[in-house]
Specification:
Six copies of one chain form a homohexamer. By secondary structure, the first copy, chain A, is mainly α. The first copy, chain A, has a domain of 29 residues. Chain A has three helices and no strands. In chain A, helix 1 crosses helix 3. Chain A starts with 16 loop residues before the first helix and ends in a 5-residue tail after the last helix. Chains A and F meet through helix 1, helix 2 and helix 3 of A and helix 1 and helix 3 of F. Chains A, B, C, D, E, F: This is Hexameric tyrosine-coordinated heme protein (HTHP).
Chain lengths: 78, 78, 78, 78, 78, 78
């Protein structure tokens, strides 16, 4: 996993909730990339989970957890 | 996912718990939309998970996590 | 989901832990109701998950997360 | 679920971590009881999940979440 | 579950993160022990989940949650 | 699990979010190592979960939880 950047810009701080949400999505995808470095296999798997209801729900689950951390880091953009 | 708005109104702050709960549901659905941009496929998958007990429970799970973040952002509307 | 009330009394505050726990159960069920508006289908699915060990465990999981939020909202009724 | 007591002693406060842990186990079981009121069915399902590795892991998962709430309520018994 | 000690030393406080992590592993295993008291069955199930990728991931999941609580209890050993 | 170091450097503190994220990945893998000490079996299981969409999502899930703890420990590197 060493060659993959796991946290874009090396920061959890974002200007807005929207950007925080995008970061949550990116960070979870980068873990997939670090765990499965082969881009072609990842592309195939992506088609699998994007067309499977249970897996799409699993995606929302992980993003929710990542976002909780990012939101706390940004004091919820209050 | 770039064209999908992930956080409606770009804010986690809502007037009431009810609105916070609605936001939690919307935010998790928007992640599905960003992951599976094809509206027709999403509609089919929606029928799948809305009729499957285990997947409905998975929906409640994700909403619970999203709501935890939104509730904290709003100081629990105390 | 628009017609379903998602947060009874529009508040996370309860007098006691027992009431907070009941609220956690109700809130998770209301998400099921909002996702599957057909009462008859819900009743069938309810029989499914109430008789399946893995799904019952999934119910406990979601309730635990909802309760964590409600307990924090109420300062743990200390 | 109305007849089932969901929080023993109606309190999250316990004298020790050990008692807090026992409370976490009890609270998750009471959700099972409230969802499946038939004691005989529960006994059968209990044998199922106690003999299934994946379900035992699911039990540990829920207890961990319940315990997190109880531990916070008790300021971690520091 | 009454005869099983659920929290070794009846405390969440540890001298180091390493010891906190060990405690997280032990506490989740003690829930398995309390739920399935038969040591022989536990040993069989252990071989099952230690050789199954999905179950090993489930183990990491529960340990992560237990550790979150223990780390907070110890103010993250800062 | 006694011979496996579970927390590299015995600390949750890291200089940057990137390093914190790497630590989250390592800590979850060390739990796998402690649970399945046989390196050859681990290698086989790794190929399994790295090529399975659902399991990759499970990896992102656990890493998200571990990272939440590490991020809190580091005050989110603010």
């Amino acid at each position: 996993m060493d060659a993959v950047t796991l946290v874009p810009n090396n920061s959890l701080l974002t200007a807005t909730p929207e950007e925080g949400r995008q970061l949550a999505v990116r960070m979870s995808r980068l873990i997939v990339k670090a765990t499965q470095p082969d881009a072609q296999i990842r592309e195939q798997l992506r088609e699998v989970y994007a067309s499977d209801a249970a897996m799409l729900l699993a995606v929302t689950h992980t993003v929710a957890i990542e976002f909780a951390t990012i939101a706390a880091a940004n004091n919820y953009w209050r």
